[in-house]
Backbone:
C-alpha cells in the first residue's frame, strides 16, 4: 500500500540528496553527476564560499536577524497568552484571540506588499511621521532599518498563532491549584508567578530549544519579498544568497555548496543545543 | 472566580485591545484607502476613516483577467495538492500502525531522515528539469507529501483501538476495506486538520512557483501578487477593459494611482480567507495541539 508513496518520496526527497554531490564538482548543466565524465573539484566550492566577501556578511546577517527575532519575538506569544488568559469576559476573550490569528492567514506576499507600500515615500509611515513634524524618506533603502522591519513583520505575523500552544497549556492547569492558592491568601499576581508560569516552563524550554536550533534558518521567503540591493548588507542570508547567486546566477555547484555548508552548521547547532540543554537542565528533545 | 474591576484587570484588557488593534490596523488602513476617493488618497490624509466612497478601484481590479486566471490556477493547485496530501498521509500512516507489518522501523527512519536532510533548491531544480516537469503544472502538484502530516495522522491512527480492525479482518476484510470503512470515518478530525493546513499552506505559497514556473500564465495567485506588489512588474493602471467610458470616468480613471489599485487587490484577495478562517478556528487549534504531541 505504501509503495507508490514511498517511490514518490524517493524521487523528490532522496534523489536531490544525491544531487548534493554537485557541491563537490564543477557542475555545468548537462554534465554527469557520477562516472568518468564528472568534473570533480573537491572542496573548492566550499573554500571559495568561506573565503568570499559574502560569507562573513551572510553569517552575521543570519545570526543577527535570528537573535533579534528571538529577543523580540520569543516572549510575545507567551506574554500575550498570559494576558489573554486573564480576560474574564468569555466573548471578549474569544474576539481578541480570533483577531490575533488574522495575520497568520494573510499571505506573506500580501504582508510584505503592505509593508513596502507603508514605508514608501508617500506611504503611511512618512505621512504619520509628518503629523509629528518629522520628515522621513527612503525607508526601504535604509539598511539599518531592515532588521527591525523584518523582525517586526515576523512577530506581527506569528504572535497570535504562537500563543495558541501556550494558551492550551495554561488552560490545562488544574483550577483547584488556583483556588487553594487564593485561600492561602495569594493574589492574582502571585498565582500567576507561582502556578501558571511553572506549568509553562517545559513548553517554553522545548520552544527555546527549537528556536536556538533554528538560529541558522531565516525566513528567507519574507526577506526575498522585502529586500532590495540597497539593503543586502543587512538582509542577505544564505537562503536569499543561494537563490540569487546559485539558482538565478547559474552557479549551481557554488550555490549547492554554500547551502550545504549552512545546513550542516544548522544541524550541528540543533544537536549542540539539545546536548547542552540535557547537561544543564536535564531536559532534552531526545 | 469572581469578577473584580481592579486596576490591573482593566490595564490587561486595554493592553489586549491595543494588541488586537495593532494586529488589525494595517489591513484596516489598506481597506479604507482602497474605498476612498482617489483625490483624497493622493493627498494622503486618511488614517481612521475613509474619505469619500469610491469603488472604482475594485471595478478595475475585477476586470483584471490575469488575476482571475491566477486565482483559478491557485484553486486548482490547492484542490489537487490537498487531495494528494491527504492521500499520501493516509496511505503511509495506516501501514505504519499495523503492528504485524515488517519493516515499519526502517520505513519510519526513511521518512524521518527526509525531515532533517534535504538537497536544497538547486538539486531540486535540477531534478525537476530532468523529470521534465519544470514549467508545468505538475511542478506545483507533484511532491504532494509532508512527513509532518504523515506523523500526525499516524499518531491519530494509533489511538484507534486495534479490536476494530481485528474484528474487520475476522469478517474477511482486507487492508484497504478496513482503512476505508473503519479508520477513515473515525479519523475525520485529523483529516480535517491536514486538509485545512494544506489548503492554507498551498494557497499562500509562492516560492515554489517562483523557481519552477517561468510561464506566467500558470502562476498561482500569490505569485501574481508578488509580481504586482513586490517586483512591480505588473502595472495595474494599464488594465483596460472598458471601451465605453465617458469623459468624466476617463478623468477619474487617470487619477487612480497604482497605490490604490494595489490596496484594492490586497483586500480583494485577502477578504475570502479573512471571512472564512474564524469558522475553522476549532479545527486548526486542535491541529496545533495534535502537532505538538507528535513523538
Residues:
Amino acid at each position: 500500500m505504501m509503495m507508490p508513496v514511498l517511490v514518490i518520496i524517493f524521487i523528490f526527497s532522496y534523489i536531490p540528496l544525491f544531487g548534493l554531490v554537485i557541491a563537490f564538482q564543477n557542475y555545468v548543466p548537462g554534465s554527469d553527476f557520477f562516472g568518468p565524465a564528472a568534473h570533480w573539484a573537491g572542496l573548492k566550492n566550499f573554500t571559495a564560499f568561506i573565503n568570499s566577501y559574502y560569507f562573513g556578511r551572510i553569517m552575521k546577517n543570519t545570526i543577527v536577524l535570528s537573535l533579534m527575532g528571538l529577543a523580540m519575538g520569543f516572549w510575545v506569544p507567551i506574554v500575550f497568552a498570559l494576558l489573554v488568559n486573564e480576560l474574564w469576559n468569555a466573548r471578549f476573550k474569544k474576539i481578541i484571540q480570533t483577531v490575533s490569528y488574522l495575520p497568520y492567514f494573510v499571505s506573506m506576499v500580501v504582508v510584505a506588499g503592505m509593508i513596502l507600500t507603508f514605508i514608501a515615500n508617500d506611504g503611511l509611515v512618512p505621512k504619520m511621521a509628518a503629523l509629528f513634524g518629522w520628515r522621513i524618506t527612503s525607508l526601504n533603502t535604509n539598511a539599518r532599518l531592515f532588521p527591525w522591519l523584518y523582525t517586526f513583520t515576523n512577530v506581527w505575523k506569528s504572535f497570535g498563532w504562537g500563543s495558541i500552544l501556550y494558551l492550551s497549556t495554561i488552560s490545562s492547569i488544574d483550577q483547584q491549584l488556583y483556588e487553594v492558592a487564593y485561600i492561602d491568601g495569594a493574589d492574582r499576581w502571585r498565582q500567576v508567578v507561582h502556578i501558571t508560569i511553572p506549568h509553562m516552563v517545559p513548553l517554553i524550554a522545548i520552544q527555546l530549544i527549537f528556536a536556538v536550533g533554528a538560529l541558522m534558518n531565516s525566513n528567507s521567503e519574507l526577506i526575498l519579498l522585502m529586500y532590495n540591493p540597497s539593503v543586502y548588507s543587512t538582509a542577505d542570508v544564505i537562503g536569499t544568497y543561494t537563490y540569487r547567486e546559485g539558482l538565478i546566477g547559474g552557479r549551481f555547484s557554488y550555490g549547492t555548496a554554500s547551502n550545504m555548508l549552512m545546513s550542516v552548521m544548522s544541524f550541528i547547532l540543533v544537536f549542540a543545543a539539545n546536548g547542552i540543554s540535557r547537561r544543564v537542565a536535564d531536559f532534552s528533545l531526545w | 472566580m469572581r469578577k473584580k474591576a481592579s486596576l490591573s484587570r482593566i490595564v490587561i484588557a486595554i493592553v489586549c485591545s491595543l494588541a488586537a488593534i495593532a494586529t488589525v490596523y494595517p489591513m484596516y488602513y489598506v481597506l479604507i484607502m482602497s474605498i476612498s476617493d482617489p483625490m483624497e488618497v493622493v493627498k494622503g490624509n486618511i488614517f481612521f476613516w475613509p474619505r469619500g466612497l469610491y469603488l472604482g478601484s475594485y471595478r478595475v481590479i475585477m476586470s483584471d483577467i490575469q488575476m482571475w486566471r491566477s486565482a483559478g490556477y491557485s484553486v486548482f493547485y490547492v484542490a489537487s495538492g490537498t487531495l494528494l496530501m491527504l492521500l499520501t498521509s493516509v496511505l503511509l500512516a495506516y501501514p505504519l500502525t499495523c503492528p504485524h507489518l515488517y519493516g515499519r522501523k526502517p520505513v519510519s527512519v526513511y521518512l524521518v531522515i527526509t525531515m532533517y536532510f534535504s538537497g536544497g533548491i538547486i538539486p531540486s531544480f535540477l531534478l525537476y528539469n530532468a523529470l521534465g516537469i519544470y514549467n508545468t503544472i505538475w511542478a506545483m502538484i507533484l511532491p504532494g507529501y509532508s512527513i509532518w502530516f504523515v506523523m500526525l495522522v499516524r499518531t491519530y491512527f494509533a489511538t484507534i483501538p486495534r479490536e476494530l480492525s481485528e474484528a474487520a479482518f475476522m469478517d474477511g476484510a482486507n487492508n484497504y476495506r478496513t482503512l476505508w470503512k473503519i479508520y477513515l470515518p473515525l479519523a475525520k478530525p485529523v483529516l480535517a486538520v491536514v486538509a485545512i493546513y494544506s489548503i492554507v499552506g498551498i494557497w499562500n505559497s509562492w516560492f515554489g512557483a517562483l523557481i519552477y514556473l517561468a510561464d506566467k500564465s500558470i502562476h498561482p495567485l500569490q505569485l501574481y501578487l508578488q509580481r504586482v506588489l513586490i517586483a512591480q512588474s505588473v502595472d495595474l493602471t494599464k488594465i483596460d477593459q472598458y471601451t465605453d467610458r465617458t469623459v468624466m470616468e476617463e478623468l477619474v480613471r487617470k487619477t487612480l494611482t497604482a497605490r490604490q489599485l494595489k490596496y484594492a487587490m490586497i483586500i480583494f484577495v485577502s477578504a475570502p480567507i479573512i471571512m472564512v478562517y474564524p469558522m475553522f478556528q476549532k479545527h486548526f487549534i486542535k491541529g496545533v495541539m495534535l502537532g505538538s504531541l507528535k513523538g
Q: What stands out?
A: DSSP finds 14 helices and no strands in chain A. Chain A has a mean pLDDT of 84. The CA atoms of residues 274 and 280 of chain A lie 10 Å apart. The two ends of chain A are 30 Å apart (CA to CA).
